[in-house]
Every structure is written in C-alpha cells, then in structure tokens.
Amino acid sequence: MPVTERTYAEAIRDAMSLALEQDERVLLLGEDIGVYGGAFQVTGDLVERFGPDRVVDTPISELGGAGLAVGAALNGLRPVLEFQFSDFATLAMEQIVNQAAKMRYMLGGAVSVPVVMRFPCGSGTGAAAQHSQSLEAWLAHVPGLKVVQPSTPYDAKGMLLAAIEDPDPVMIFEHKLLYKMKGEVPDERYRASLDKAEVRREGDALSVVASGIMVHKALEAAERLATEGHALEVIDLRSVRPIDRDTLVASVCKTHRLLCVHEAVKTLGIGAEISAMIVESEAFDYLDAPIVRLGGAEVPIPYNPRLEKAAVPQVDDIVEAARALVTGRR
Amino acid sequence: MPIQVILPKVDMDMSHARLVEWRVADGQPVEAGDVLFDMETDKSTMEVEADASGTLGCITGRAGSDIAVGTTIAWLFQEGEDRSVDPGQGSGEEAGGEAGGEASGEASGGPGEPSDEGSGVAPLETPIEVEVRSSDVDASPLVQAPRPAGDEGRQGDRAGDRPVRATPRARWLARRGGIDLSGVKGAGPRGRIAAADLRRFEATVSTANDGQGDAADPSSDPLREHDGLAYRVSGVSDAQPCLLVHGFAGDSSVWSVLAAQLSRRGHRVVSVDLPGHGHTRHPAGTVASLGTGMPQLVERCFGKRPVHLVAHSLGAVPALQLAERVPVSTMTLLAPAGMSPTIDASFVQAMAAPTSIGELRHQLRKLCERPTPLSDAAVQVLFDALRQGRLIEIAGALIARSGASVDIVDALDALSARVACRVIVGHRDRIIDWRDACRLSSRVAVHHLPRAGHLPQWDAPDEVLDIILSATDRAAGHR
Amino acid sequence: MKADSDTGPANAPFAFRTLTSQRLRELLHQMRLVRRFEEKAEESYTRGLIHGTMHLSIGQEASAVGVCAALREDDQITSTHRGHGHCIAKGAEVGRMFAEFFGKEAGYCRGRGGSMHIADVAGGNLGANGIVGGGIPIAVGAALANARLKTGRVVVSFFGDGANNEGAFHEALNMAAIWSLPVVFVCENNGYGMSTSTERSTAVRSVADRAGAYAMPGCSVDGNAVSEVLEATHRAVERAREGQGPTLIECRTYRWRGHSKSDRNRYRTKQEIDSWVERDPIARFERELIEWGHADPNEVQAIAERVEQEIEAGIRFATEAAEPSLDELCAYVTTEPERGADAGH
What we know:
heterotrimer; A: alpha/beta; B: alpha/beta; CATH 2.40.50.100; Dihydrolipoamide Transferase; 3 domains; nine-stranded mixed β-sheet; elongated
C-alpha cells in the first residue's frame, strides 16, 4: 500500500478529495473554503477540481450554516462544515446542540443526522482570546454527538473519512499548530476508528493520557524521562466522546499512575472526567499515586507570546509532573 | 347530561392548585366563557372560565382548599336536570339525596369538617424482640460493647486514632499479605505508604532480628525465643506489661494488629507461641501442659510487675493457669473455650489434621465473620505446619466425650475475686456457643459483640482494643 | 350542488375555482380535525393526562391547511412549537399524534419527543421544533439537498412572528436567496411572540416587508381565508419548483388560546380575543363552501361527525398503546448498525 509523506492539512484535503470523488452526496461547506482555499489552506484547490457546487462558500453565518448542514443531512447529503475557528462554534451552538445532537432521539429514531463539523482550535499563533480556544469538552458533554481529536496526519485523514461515513454528527477538533506537521499517510481511502485511544509509546512507570497537540509534548517528555530511567506510557486519547475507557483502565492497572494532559482549561475539563472514570473502575485498586491533571490556566488565552505559552501545559510542565509522580514525591 | 367542572392543569409541573373563591353561586346559571372561579398556582392567580353553559351545582370543591389537578369540583346542569343528585357519586349513595344537600351546604366556603379521621394518637411502636436466656441463668451484668466509631476499619488500616495514609494499591497489597499498615513506614508525602514502602517493609521483616535490643523502637516486632518458647515483643520496655496468648491451632501472629495498637498505647506487649504452635519447638502435650514455660517467660520479660493477660479461645486455659503463678493486673478472655463442654469437634479435628487445603480454608472461614486475611501463600504455610500433626493429641483431649476436658468456669470465678476479669464474646461465633458466657460468675464482666465471630480481634478490632484499654487504663488509674 | 369533481365558477376565489368539491370538502375535514384535535388535546392536558405543556393553534387552521393544500405529498415542511395543525394538515394520523402526547411507544416519536417535537418524517414533516427559528435554516438545508439531488421537492418552512427577529431567520433567508433554493418561508403572524406584540418587537410593519431585504418576493395574506393562503402558497411553490428561488409569505392570523397552557393572557384583552373568535376561519370556510356550491349543510354536518369519530378512535388508540420500555432509555441517540433500517434515508 503506497504511503506518502503529507502534512496534517494535506492529509485532510486528501480525505476530502477522495470523499468528493467517490460519493456524490458529499458536500463541503464553510467560510472562504472556495477560491481562498480555507483560512488554514486545508481545502486548497479543491474548488478548482470539484466546482463551487461541491465546495461551497457560505456567507458569514455560522448559525445558519450549521442549520443548513443539518437540513441537508436530513435529506440525504453528507455535508462537511468547516468552522474557521473553533471559537465560532459558540455562534452555532443552537443548531449543534439542540438540533444536530438531538433530532434523532427526539424523533424516536426516525431520522439520523450525518453531519461532520471541523473546528481548527488551540493557541500558539498569537490570535488571542477569541481565536484560540479548545472547546471540545463543551461538545463532548452532549449525548448525541461524537467528538474526536486527531493528533497525526494519519488520523486526520482516516478519522475524517470515517466521520463522513458515520450516520451521526461527528465534531472534529484540529489543533492549528498541527496543520504543518508531517507524517506518513496511506494514499488509499481508509478509516481510522472514532472511539479508540491508542498507545503511542509503551511503558510501565506512568500512564500519560494526552489529546491533540499534547500527545506530541507528552512524547517529548517521555524521551526525557527515559534518560532518567523511567519508562512512561503515552496514550493518545483520540476520541473525547466516547472516551476509550478500556484502554485507559488497562494502562493504569499496569503502571499504577496517571497523568492527564490537555490544552483545554483544566478545571471541569476532560482530565477531570478521565480521573473520575479511573477511580470508579477496577483500576482504583492499582493506583499507587494521586491522579494528576495538567490543563490550561484559568485565563483567556493571552496575546503576549510568553503569557500565551504559560497559559497552557508545555513539555517542561509534563516532565516535572511526571517526574514527581514516578519518584513518589507527589 | 350534566357537565363536569374540573380543576384544570395549566402549568407543566403542576399537580395541585388552591381554589381561591367561587365567582358564581350554587344554583346560578352560567354561560360558556363566564368566569367560574379563581385559582392560585405556584406562579399566579388566574380566573377559570366555564367551558359550557348550565346551572352550577353539586359544588364539592371548597373555597380555600388545595385540590389535585383533574378533580371534579362541580357540575353544570342542563335544563330539567336534578341538581340535588350528585352525578359523580356511586348509585348507592344517591338515595335520599343527602350527599347533594350536604355538598351544597359547604359550597359557601364555611369551615368544614376535617377530612381525615385521625385518632390523634400515635400508633404503638412495634416492641423489639429481646432474646431471653434459659431460666437457670445467672443475671450476669451485661456490658454493651462500645459502638464502633464510623466504619469498623479494616485490619491494618487503623492505627490508634488516625487512619493510616496509604495508596489504594498499598492497601490492597497489605490486605492480601496480611500486613498491618500501621507498622509500615511510608516515604510519600504526609507519610503516605505506597507499594514500594510495603516491599521495603516485607524485606526487613523477613530477616530475623534475634537478640537486637528494641527497647527504644515501639514498632518493631521480631521473633525471639526463651527456653524453647517463641515469642514476639513490642512496645517501650517500661510500659504496662501485657501478655497475649493465642488459641488452638493459632500462633502469635493472630495478635499482630492488637499488639501493634497496644504497644502504641503505652504497653509492653509479648505474644507467645504456645507449645506445639507457631515457632515454638516444644511439643504440645496435654491441654494442661500448654502453659509450660510461661511463668519463666513472664519473669524474663516483665520481672515481677503485674501483667495484663489477654487470651483467645483455648489460650484461656494456660492463661488461667499462669494467673496462679504470676502477678496479674487484669484478665481478658476473647471467645474462650471451656465455658461449657461444647466445642465444634469438626473444627478441632480438621485443624489438628487437615486433609486438604480446601478443608483448611473451609474451617478458617468458620473462624471469622469478615473474610479471612490469609493469602494463598499463608494458607499453604499453615497447612504444611498443621500437617506435622503436633496438635492431634490435644485435639483428642478437647473432643473427648468422657469427663470434662476443659473447664474454665471455676478457675475464672476464683480469679475474679482478686483480679478484674472480662470476657468478650461474638454472637456469630461458630466454634463455641457465646451463650455459655452466662454460666460465668457475676464478677466476670461479659462484653457482647453482635457481629463478631470466633476471632473478635479480627472481626471487631476497634471494639476489642477499646475494651482492653478500658481495663488496662482503669488498672493503671488505680495505682 | 356541484358534482364532486367539479371546480367552481370563474368568478369564485382561487380555491373554489380551481379545486374540486371533493378536495375542498377534504380541506374542511382537515380544518375540523385540527380544531377538534386541539380541543381534545387541551382537555386531556387540563385533566393532567398529558405531561409537559402544549402550544395550541386553535384559530389558525386556515393557515396550516391552506398552505399544505398547495403541496404535493412528497413535499416537505419544517414546523414550530405550535405545530399540531401543520402535522395534521400534512397528513398525519391523529391516533399516533395522541399517542405521542401520551408518551407512548406508538407515537410518531416513540414518546420521546412530545408536542414540541412532533414529526411525521415519512409524510414529509421534518418536525416541530422547540427552538424559535430552529427549523428555518434546517428547511433551507433540506431544500439545498433537494436541489442538489434533483428530487423536485419543495420545502415549506413554517415559523411565527417571533422567529422573524431571530438571527437564524435572517441567515437562512439570505442563504436561500443567494442560492435560489426551492423553499417557501411561511410566517404565521398571530400578532404575538409569546406575550410581546409584533408592534413592540418588530421594526417593520409587516413581516412580508422583510422579503425585500433578501431579494425575494413577499406577500401578506389574510391567514384566516383558506383561498388566499392557498393561492399565495401555490404561486410560491410553483416558483420554487421551477428553480426561481424562495418566497416569503405572511399569513395574518390569530391564536385563540394563550401561548401555552400557563399563559394567563394578561397581555391582550378579552375583546380582542372575542373579535377574532367571531371571525372563525372554519365557520367562514363552511359558509364559502356552501356559497360556491361545493357542499350543503348536511355534508358539512356529516364531516363534523366523521371528525368526531376519528378523534374518538384516535384517543382510544393512544390510551391503549404501550409505554416505552425503561430498558431502552438510551436507545435512538446514535445510529446503531442494527437500526440502520430506520435511519430515514
């Protein structure tokens, strides 16, 4: 199976291209995704290949656009709606939470809503408070939605293809700093699972469960701890709703320690859910240290670059927390 | 046909409303759309209109009362219909039209009769059944065991009055290995014990520490020997002397938790392995010879100081013998054998000569109410030890039908004349019958633990500790 | 008296001129069915048999029935929280609607949606909606799919005067216009968004005035006149089906009951309500049917009786129907593979 090195953004474009080619029901919607190529150049030249009827520029109407996607999905299309920034999900919350997530249930199973919505998210570009958020936990709190965070180009392509084929609403959160990340991506059309976590690095001293860009920071931290004689196990959470409980429990039973890392604000975040899930599971008896979470600080993302970095976990933070746990100091 | 007037539901979460007042009187004609009555809900007061026309009658909804949604509160009668007959009543009550007449009498909202006929007297509480003992029983003073403070605490978890800090994994490992966490030093924050600390602890315990002075270290508990009798010591050397004597087929380790707790509370604790048991190499001979070597041991450990004796099950026998030979402060017997000839023969036989690990486990389960603390490895070790057959002779003596094999009643009675004696029994004891405690003399205090089995120190460690401490503290106070 | 298949004289209003007598009597049957359904649902509610609340459309029957009369069976609608009338006008069975209100498994939404989310997807009703304005962008999306897949279907988006101030209304009308989508926007202006009158809440005099802002035709009709409603809708539907884009129709009507069952009607006077009740659209339609020779009083009466029977049967069906099973509390949230059959595609 031929494999090409692609960036994360190119991998997504590749998925869209394959889907548009092979399924006439697929429709891309979003602001500036046509001739402009998308705010993060994800759609690129797709409009030239597939035309403005398949790669549709919407007006700046997030709420209307989300409702449009829902209605189109009800009637048999497979819309993929791009939000320019995940922060703008707030404008569309009504259609996402009250309509897309709930229509199937409220109508007793008479319909399903196969929409995909993509959200570029995260901080580090100086876009400041209203263009840098990580809101995946908000949507993950809603029954009826599936929420995923691919962290590699391979997953970016595979999860999007799986999401397009999924009969239910799938929300994909893509960290903006990952768009330029390179990785090996198969050329063919394939699906990556939407509900499984993956162990990216095996170890026995500590389980580090990370999502999105934090997976890569955790892997870096693991390298450093390895030189100190401690083998960290790094798990890429991949899906936030549902969380792959079995993989996480098995890991903690093995390593006896857990560190959760995400960029989203720590308080009331996904790390809290994972911690509670572990404590409620059989892994509780195997815990040999407190569960620790690293997450965003209690502050809107600052503009100043040093402050911006300090507002979210960095590799050093992960190293420090992990070291304290594995040496029994925490 | 008369038309019902109901109290309507108007709000989503509404179950009742107050009928404030009728705006139309009984007997008055009403047009559809006229306001009939005012109704007050949680949200506001509103007017309720008539759905149809007619003459209002049979008003059963009383002004000022709370009425359930959907209840019929009046009727609208059409021309020619009899208003004195309540259309809502069953046929039996229509006779005489009394119901209709009374109902309309209440329509004006005057003070009505209370609707529920209460007697005003609270119902008698169900008397609590008290189990009555047999009639020839002496009225021994019953001392209720102190109530547990919250959860009973698992073995190894409680040390004195503060719980031990330990990770879930450390607790699980400790439970499985029968390790008392209060004896383990934790290297974590605030002294938290983690698995690594347990590993370190186990490593130190496995090396025997014979001959090492431990007067200054209250938590150490190494195995020692004197004249063939194996024993353990803990506690500060000049603290109150305390000797713990185990029972049939046990050994000094049955006291590990209690010993640790007592040694923390101002006692110098010695727990001995009886002949034929544990690490003591002397064979067990007869029941009477179980106490061999004990007076010498006591003198070695405590000099002439009076000793608090605590004995379990068959250990009561050598303990009582010992009490004749050395100064004794207090005597506390846990589930003592010998209060009557009754003893579980199958238990004794199986412990003396177990045929299989399964049988041994089965008998061990009889001992305690709470699940047995022994790990698989420990059970194997015990099985191997018991298979040596050192207890067969004693077992035979215990279950002999001829004559009284063991009887402590008189000895205990005699002792209680000069020493404070107490007995602790568990009502779920399957080896001895706790009711035999009623045969003891009135000078012996009997403590009842309703949920404990034959090993009260395992099933109810906090209560047992409290009882012993109350005895030793009191004795200390008298000095 | 006309034969059932006859249409009316050349000088008659649109409906009485272009529809057959039989079809017109069916429309009367539908209006009566809506009226009696609403009254019966109301009665069950006041007796405490129905959970939650409900939003009744008594007095607005001509609007629901007139609009749906212009649609084909496979055309679609999205509806509002006041959607019982739309549902019946689009062909739903009253028994299954009652069952839904009683929370039964046999209801249109398996008892899980209730009054505010009543739907009949197979009949083209994509659902009532508990969010004001919630259905408008969805209708536009549905129309987009119809255009893309060339189904020839038109979507009608019902909404009230309150919705015309929601952001979703403006975004949806704009998108429908720029892409010339086959959707018809029908605003049932009953004068009040809950308790706030249109005079106090809406900057334009008539909701139809907003059509110009989105470059589409708009018209305002007497929502209590079946023929006017039908004529305006018919034109708009033809326009949409021919690919010429959306239209905004305002049906001026009135709701006799309060916004919901908790409404104390403090914001309007009894005289106002009475003045509209006197102009009952059903009574008016009956008069017109007789006047234009499409029915006689006996037939009108017979329709009323048949409606009673249909309602009684519906209530019986709903009362006897079974409750959903607690074991299925979390079913129908996502699409399980085994249940793919009822995904609706």
